[in-house]
Amino acid sequence: MVKKVVYFFCFYFFLSSIALQAQSKFKVGFDMGYTYSNLNANLSNLVESKYSGDYGFGASLTGEYTIRKPIFLKTAVSFLQKNYTFRRTGSRLGWYTKYYNDFLSIPFLVGVTVLGSADISQGLWLKIAGGTYIEYLMRLQRKGQYIALTENRYKKVSETYDFKKNENMLNRFGYGLQGELSLGYSFKKWTFYGTCNYQYGLSDISIANTNKNRQKTIQSYMIAAGTSYQFN
Amino acid sequence: MYLKLYKKTAFVLGVLLAILIFNACELDDKYPISAPEQYTKDDVKSYADLFKVFWTVMDQRYSCFYEQKRKDGKDWDAIYNEYYPKFSALKTFGRSTDDKNEIDTDKVKAIHYFVDIINPIFDRHFFVKIKIPLNRYQYGIFRFQGGMKEQHANSYMFSSKLGYIKKYLGNDTICQKYTLIPGVKKSDLSITYLMGSVKKNPDIYYLTYDSFSLYLSDLTKFLSSKFLNDSNPNELGLRTRNIENNPLLGRITDLTVRENVKELTRAIQSKWEAFTIAPELNVFRTLCRQFMATEIVSDDLLEAARSALIKYDELPVYYEEETYATVLTPESKPYMDWFISEMEQYIGNERNMNDFETAAMAVIERAPFYQNLLNPLHKGTIKKLILDLRSNGGGAVKDLQFFIERLVTKSTIWSYERTKEGNGRFDYTPWIPQKTKPHKLGGIPSNIPIAILTDNYSASMSEITVLLLKSQGNHVVSIGDYTYGATAGVTSNPADFNGGVVGNIADNWFYFYMPFSAVKDANGEMIEGIGIKPDIYVAPPTDAEVTQMENAPDTFVDRVMEVAVNHLSSK
């Protein structure tokens, strides 16, 4: 299943780049950086329990097409680690689970250059963009520490989640809204830029939940640096 | 024109970004969810409410929905969709305006619905008591549990076993019952055990007990008291000068009485002080320290406990007014009260003499368990063991550390356990491997053949014991019937695990007894609701055999015991 999804995304990106490159208004870029994610969940009925954010790694292969100056469309194939931690607090401190989620994400953004002009041969520019994304959870690893009651002690456990059994009824497909702010400097065809984006998950991470009050969604930030090349 | 488009687009995107960023700060607990403990009687005004509270508590806290769904294919939402309309259709609820015939009809329907819902629950620890209106004025408490429609096989009840099993055992048979407090015979918490070597083959030692409360035998809890390390008893406490210079003593106007009071209290004090450094007590202290390092109850320790207690019993009873009867007057009473209070502080708390009394009595009471079972197991003089867990419904996990680990020689995974974590119905922790570990002081020196006897009422800790000991190798066999199939963990504090409920909910409309975890064996198989298959199956007792074991124990033949003795004799 994972392979099929990866093939789909690669094929999608390949077709997109061919089509857009032909119009000579197309940039291909690559950036990588850190992510910071958290799970938005209502734990008000649980005692001394909370989710907290964690850092991860992210990398994106981007494609950007200028529709009409200064407006552009942007898409990407992104590998994003959306990590977070569940932990007990207070008197129950010691039990925790670190969730390492590896997502393949595809955003569909429309943006505008608000400072400078991105297609000039040289100079500084600032862009903002917003839109939606879809994602697929490729792998989940959990590392935690739990009370082994019969051993009367805390115990560390690490496992790769078995999606075939899917005992926690996790939803591998997700979607949400994405916003992005980029600052860059262009040298003729090459551009170097820094970008920060924010993904606000709208889909529940559980396929079984029917209670909106108990919905759990992921929020994620990414700050990255990269370079792009303009075809013309 | 481009400029306008540019500005509009920038504005729209800017707003979108702002919305996204502010959304990031959305409060988690915008709509607080009621925890089961927060429900009150105001939440239960009808059968529909009764069902809804039951459904919601299960939804939030039941730990086996994944396995439950695999077993009967029905998910918890489907239960709600099917039964909420049915309960809503029951219009009465024991109100003064309800028709009494309809109340009865609705009661029968409600019980029927709850049985239909709860009977398929395969967790065998789980039960719930629900209050249901009987008429306009009264309520009945009805108990529902998983598998409540199933017929259970006959069992070897513990009380019956005590009657007949002695005929299989030799002259060294011991049967004891004790509670948490040495010397106290009646308590909700007690242990009764029976043990001795098997007549037919004295190499085989037999042990049975009514529940997993063997930890009550644990002497380390009593002998770790501070009094063992009381190396300088003259440094603290009541001093003679406190008596001499006491202003309360000066208020006794009759000089003769004052002198008598002074002499009496000084005598009492000095006798107690002398006891705190008495040779008998010091010997007992020394031997207790040796026990803490070895867990061996020697004859010397037992004798020292007896000697010290005899000496202790000879001391004047400083806390009873009778002791002071000859000098007690209204004038001397304030001084006496002060003296008793000071002595209590000094003898009880600083010299820990109360702990001594408990410890010495515990040694005397619990010594047979150590001297006949635990110490011989450690020395290797018990060569083979029958552990009879038939009709043992379980008990405390700490028995694993106190007793079962003494039969463990290697560290290995014997089960996996999982609990709830987050708020979702299926939010589980990973499966946590549970490993055996040999006892730190009193374990067996090498594996011995062990036969564990089980029946359909061997539950919970009995099943944990079977799983744990069988992980040690083929020298451990289980003989008898399938066990009960109740392996999930239960705790009085489920908030520690974010799952399970034990206690009253909604002002006594419910009493839940719901485990907080799920357990599977070392092969990854769930045995909840199924039970552990014995290595050697022996059919459960027939009705005629049950009658015989109760009424004619001398002629009753325990087929499981016979198989176990023959099996171990061949090893």
From TrEMBL, chain A:
Residues 21-205 form the Outer membrane protein beta-barrel domain. Residues 1-22 form the signal peptide. Pfam families: OMP_b-brl_2 (PF13568). It comes from the Bacteria. Keywords: Signal. This is PorT family protein. It comes from Flavobacterium supellecticarium.
UniProtKB/TrEMBL annotation, chain B:
SMART domains: TSPc. Coiled coil: none annotated. Residues 320-539 form the Tail specific protease domain. GO terms for molecular function: endopeptidase activity; serine-type peptidase activity. GO terms for biological process: proteolysis. It holds the Pfam family Peptidase_S41. This is Peptidase S41. It comes from Flavobacterium supellecticarium.
